[in-house]
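Subject: design request, 265 residues
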């Protein structure tokens, strides 16, 4: 399903029409340019690769620059991800061709101005002087902003979501480091009365006679957090296309300024 790459801004609250305060999470989602399109003929499946943010020029590698230039971009996105297309998502007639021209190509208007200047200088010499070559009329530029089809170079914005729609958000949970069994797995611990000095230990770990080892899968202390997590059935409360913000009700994994991936359900 289609989706957007975004950044978790933080939590706030919005007020409904009846005055009820709704806790929401603000996500800066998009605009995400389509960097690459994969089709059944070329790759065996349908998907689009979109980007978000911008890398510094000194941190952009030449393969990344060429990959972005083919999509009509003059920068390298900070992050790129692939989203598989659903049965309702249709590609454009020629999805591999961008409607926007590369930024480093010569401008037609400047070429026409130079040709007109040469023509005036040639006409001043006399009737026998050769006139400058005529510049063909400039073709009308395609309506890139009005084109919402799925093709390379087009932008995906938060307008693809509607208020009240259900979405799923994927992100990386907060890293907690090395934690014990009480915080990591919710163990109750030993009694807090006198005679139990070690209150937060896990207790007996496994049988001693058979099999005389700790069985795999035993809940023990260890690294906690920093895992990929997907939360489903989050409700879109508000869509702000002017600021590229998406307000969803429910828990969104990750810390502030962390990458998140918002997809339709």
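Subject: RE: design request

Done. Sequence follows.
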């Amino acid at each position: 399903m289609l989706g957007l790459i975004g950044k978790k801004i933080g939590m706030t609250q919005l007020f409904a029409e009846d005055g009820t305060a709704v806790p929401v999470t603000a996500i800066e989602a998009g605009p995400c340019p389509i960097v690459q399109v994969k089709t059944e003929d070329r790759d065996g499946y349908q998907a689009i690769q979109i980007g978000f943010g911008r890398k510094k020029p000194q941190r952009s590698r030449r393969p990344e620059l060429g990959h972005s230039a083919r999509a009509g971009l003059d920068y390298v996105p900070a992050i790129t991800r692939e989203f598989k297309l659903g049965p309702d998502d249709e590609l454009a007639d020629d999805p591999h061709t961008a409607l926007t021209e590369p930024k480093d190509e010569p401008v037609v208007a400047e070429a026409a101005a130079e040709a007109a200047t040469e023509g005036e200088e040639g006409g001043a010499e006399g009737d026998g002087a050769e006139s400058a070559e005529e510049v063909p009329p400039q073709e009308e530029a395609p309506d890139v902003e009005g084109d919402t089809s799925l093709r390379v170079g087009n932008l995906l914005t938060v307008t693809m979501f509607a208020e009240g729609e259900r979405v799923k958000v994927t992100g990386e949970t907060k890293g907690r480091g090395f934690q014990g069994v009480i915080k990591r797995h919710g163990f109750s611990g030993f009694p807090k009365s006198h005679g139990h000095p070690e209150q937060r230990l896990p207790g007996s770990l496994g049988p001693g006679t058979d099999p005389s080892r700790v069985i795999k899968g035993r809940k023990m202390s260890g690294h906690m957090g920093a895992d990929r997590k997907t939360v489903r059935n989050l409700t879109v409360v508000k869509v702000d296309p002017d600021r590229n913000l998406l307000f969803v009700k429910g828990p969104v994994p990750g810390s502030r300024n962390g990458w998140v991936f918002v997809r339709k359900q």
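The first strand starts at residue 3 and ends at 15.
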